[in-house]
Design brief:
Layout (H helix, E strand, L loop, with lengths): L6 H32 L23 E9 L6 E4 L3 E4 L5 E8 L6 E10 L7 E6 L5 E3 L4 E10 L9 E10 L7 H6 L1
Parallel strand pairs: 1-9
Antiparallel strand pairs: 1-3, 2-4, 4-8, 5-7, 5-9, 6-8
C-alpha cells in the first residue's frame, strides 16, 4: 500500500490558521477605525475639535442628554452636573462632570464616551473634554471636569435628541504615571 505524504497539506492548513488568527487580531483596531470614520456605534473623535464651524443655527434646537456611570470595578463617584440641555446647532456649550475618589489610594481613571443614536457621533464636536486625558486623583480628592462641545449644524434633521454617555474605568494598573510610584 502506498504511503500518502500529508506534509504539503499540513503546511497549507497551518498557514490558513495563522492567517485567520492574524485577521481576528486585526479586527478590533480595524473596527475602531471604521467606527470613528463613519460614526457607527456611537464612537466620537478622540481629538479636540476647532470652533471654526461653530456658527449657531437658531432655526432648530437639539436636546442633549448627559449620562455618567463608573465601571463596577471603579470605586469613584462619577456624575454630571447637567442632565439635559437644549442646544442650538453650532452653539458652543460648557457642562461639567464631578468625580470623587473615596478610596485611600491614588488612582487613575479614564472616561470613554459613547453617543446615541450612533450616526450623531460624527456631529458631536468636543472642543475640550476630560475624556481626552487620564484623570489622576489622590485619596479623598474630588475634581470638576469640563466638557466644551457643539453640535455640527450639518446634523441630519431627523435627529432631535442626542445622548452622550461616559463610562469611567480604573486604569491605575495600566497607567504609566511615574508619580503614582512615588506617592505609595
Amino acid at each position: 500500500m502506498a504511503q500518502i505524504n500529508h506534509g504539503p497539506l499540513l503546511r497549507k492548513l497551518a498557514l490558513v490558521v495563522l492567517a485567520m488568527f492574524g485577521f481576528a487580531f486585526a479586527l478590533v483596531p480595524l473596527y475602531d477605525v471604521f467606527c470613528r470614520i463613519t460614526g457607527l456605534n456611537g464612537k466620537t473623535d478622540d481629538r479636540p475639535a476647532t470652533t471654526d464651524r461653530a456658527v449657531p443655527d437658531s432655526t432648530r434646537s437639539i436636546q442633549v442628554e448627559f449620562l455618567a456611570h463608573a465601571d463596577a470595578r471603579m470605586p469613584w463617584e462619577f456624575s454630571g452636573e447637567t442632565v439635559r440641555l437644549s442646544v442650538l446647532p453650532g452653539e458652543v456649550k460648557l457642562v461639567n462632570y464631578r468625580v470623587f475618589n473615596p478610596t485611600e489610594r491614588t488612582m487613575v481613571g479614564q472616561a470613554v464616551p459613547s453617543v446615541s443614536p450612533g450616526p450623531a457621533a460624527a456631529y458631536l464636536k468636543k472642543v475640550e473634554c476630560f475624556c481626552f486625558n487620564r484623570q489622576e486623583l489622590q485619596p479623598g480628592q474630588s475634581k470638576l471636569m469640563p466638557l466644551k462641545f457643539y453640535i455640527d449644524p450639518a446634523l441630519p434633521d431627523d435627529i432631535n435628541t442626542i445622548t452622550l454617555s461616559y463610562s469611567l474605568y480604573d486604569i491605575t494598573q495600566a497607567a504609566p504615571v511615574p508619580a503614582l510610584a512615588q506617592r505609595k
